[in-house]
Design brief:
Main location: other
Number of domains: 1
Keywords: Competence
Radius of gyration: 26 Å
InterPro entries: N_methyl_site
Protein name: Prepilin-type N-terminal cleavage/methylation domain-containing protein
Low-confidence stretches: none
Subcellular location: Cell surface
Structural class: alpha+beta
Length: 146
Amino acid sequence: MANRRTGFTLIESLLALLIGSLVMLSVGLTVQQLHRDQTTGMIAATQLDNAILHLTDERRSAQYISNSSSEVRLSMKPSEGIAKVHTLKASRGQLMLSTIAGGYMPLVEKVSSAQFRYDKSCLIIELVLFNHQHVIRQIVLPMGEV
């Protein structure tokens, strides 16, 4: 009679370990990507909230002048000084506040596009991030003069 042993061969055990490790690797990478996407959205929202605080600070007295769908013109007058026209727009992967003289201040990173609407003293900013998340904020800004 033949001596039959029950159990798995070494090849079958190694194959099962390989398949199991591939499954665990794919789950780990998926969780890591989800965490990164969530963190990116939270960072962008925090950066946008800080930008709004900067724009609505009483010492700067920002006022709305005009906008297109891709940029907004604002008049900002420091507590001591002359009013300067600034442009808020998405460019080079950032939401930035720029001046006519050419300088700029990056406000939010990893922005693929931005849309702006002004309605009844309220500026609505909608950002689309590189990971396709949307961040929307509203700012109360008075109408300014050109």
